[in-house]
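Take just one protein record:
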Amino acid sequence: MINKLLKVGDKVYYQPDHYKKDNKWENGIVKEIPIHTQESVRIVYNCNEDWDNFKNYTSAITNLRDLFIGWKN
């Protein structure tokens, strides 16, 4: 299960099924792994390319089934 592999600061990309048909994705960094769920994590997607300070930016709760480890180019 991907949630056992993730830690804060890991690079991931978001690509749900509806993105795949258009070959779209969004890169992000894991900001928080909530203890109350095994199905989602908090990801920072937009930080004005200031990735070193990702913890200072707003995150989005993201379902693990839509995440993949690493960044996609």
